[in-house]
Amino acid sequence: MTATGTGSGFGSDSSEARVKRVRALRITTGTAAGIVSLTLALVLTLAPESLGLPSSPALYEKVRAQDRATEGVLVAWALLAVPVGGLLQTPVARLRGARIAAGWALLASYWLYVLLVAVAVWQVQSLFPPPGGPGKSGGLLGALTMLVLATPVCAACSGAVFRPVPGEDSDTPGGQVRSHLAAVALLSWVFNGVFIGALIGRNFSFPWAGSFAMFFPGGILWGFHAGAALGMLIGARLQRAPEARAETTRLAASLTRTATALLLCCLCVAQLGWFFPAWAVSLVSLPALVALFTLASRNERLGRWVELRTLELPKGGFD
């Protein structure tokens, strides 16, 4: 009995060591995928002639003419990182015993998502001043673009798209994919909401002096909650268990109410711009939001509309 117990212990230690090795290999491979794809993006956009391509591709010239080279590099990197991450993580996925075909189907959908984001960013880029332009906020569009693209790139480079073959106590293959998609949808729409909220706030003009209250932290905060609500709603539709679906839908409704209350608060504070300069409105915007959450914690009726929640990703979504 002693020998059997020792052997079982060694087997457990060996299994844990293998899991750690595979996890370290995933991290190393993901880091390599990010570096390789970024290098390729820089070469393609800054020195394409080194790859036998025209020195000034028409599309790159059009992007550079708008002084959006940084955003162009970010989009090119994301478009390359998804397939490169998939290629480098495929051997690791085989070692893990994960499902390859389903992973590449997810990679294809994420690549299309990145392409749609690229088109959307190009359509709204004129609403953000270029580097050195009025307002000197040229880095804002690049930062927001990176946020919106981060989730699919992370899912591809980390190998999370390749879902493991279920064990005895694991979820079904369909359940694993749904958990992954729910996690990606939640994170993606949180960042999309921040982007949209910041975009609306920055271009708010009723009055123009009140735009700061609508942009920071207001637009970012209500956009965050609105995006999270939509992500939660998508996650609810991906769940099959009625109880889990109902609970997730309830959380989405709570986030929607909070986003609405935050937006109304920001709109009210922004109206001070009719009477005070922008710097005065900016001084009031943050305390007003803090006061809103403080009052909500003490007033039952307001507390139904404003709830401070911690977002939790679906379990195993990025395993």
Account of the protein in words:
Helix content is 74%, strand content 0%. It has 319 residues and is mainly alpha-helical. α3 (69-96) runs parallel beside α5 (138-157) and α9 crosses α10. The protein is flat, with a radius of gyration of 23 Å. The relative contact order is 0.08.
Number-wise, the strands total 0
Unreliable runs: 1-10, 133-137
* Mean pLDDT reading: 83
Calculate Rg over CA atoms. 23 Å
Q: What best-fitting shape do the alpha-carbon axes yield? A: flat
Name a few traits of the molecule.
disordered N terminus; 74% helix; single chain; 0% strand; mainly alpha; 11 helices; 319 residues
Write the layout of secondary structure elements.
Blueprint: H1 2-46, H2 58-65, H3 69-96, H4 100-124, H5 138-157, H6 173-202, H7 211-215, H8 218-238, H9 242-270, H10 278-298, H11 300-303
Helix pairs in contact: 1-3, 3-4, 3-5, 4-5, 5-6, 6-8, 8-9, 9-10
Brief write-up:
74% of the residues lie in helices and 0% in strands. It is built from 11 helices and no strands.
